[in-house]
Amino acid sequence: MKRALVLFAHGARAASWAAPFERLRDGLREQLPGTPVTLAFLELMEPRLPEAVTAQVADGVDDITVVPVFLGQGGHLLRDLPALAEQIRAAHPGLRLQLAGAIGEDPGVQAAMRDYCVRSLGNV
């Protein structure tokens, strides 16, 4: 079984918006040598999620975990992502596709964000 990780972000018109997500992807690639890690977008940027998954499958991946790099479970994660997952599963019936929760809802990520907020106050 060949596993891969796809970071799923919203996308924006400004190319610079993707920079933090690209750094996250690059750091994960260093941390997970041998595991393909890609970045995909819902809209406004490329690649879109179905195309990113198709590229992974073409490279022999048969187990993909999609991690939404969203702060919370809004409409995009409640409606759009499940619809995309259904489309992807139909196009790649042998693929194991797992959807993680929104990264911003993870307790460890919440703790890191709290720490950042406290540090932003300065000498506390």
Automatic annotation (TrEMBL):
<dbReference type="Pfam" id="PF01903">
    <property type="entry name" value="CbiX"/>
</dbReference>
<keyword id="KW-0456">Lyase</keyword>
<protein>
    <submittedName>
        <fullName>CbiX/SirB N-terminal domain-containing protein</fullName>
    </submittedName>
</protein>
<dbReference type="InterPro" id="IPR002762">
    <property type="entry name" value="CbiX-like"/>
</dbReference>
<dbReference type="InterPro" id="IPR050963">
    <property type="entry name" value="Sirohydro_Cobaltochel/CbiX"/>
</dbReference>
<keyword id="KW-0479">Metal-binding</keyword>
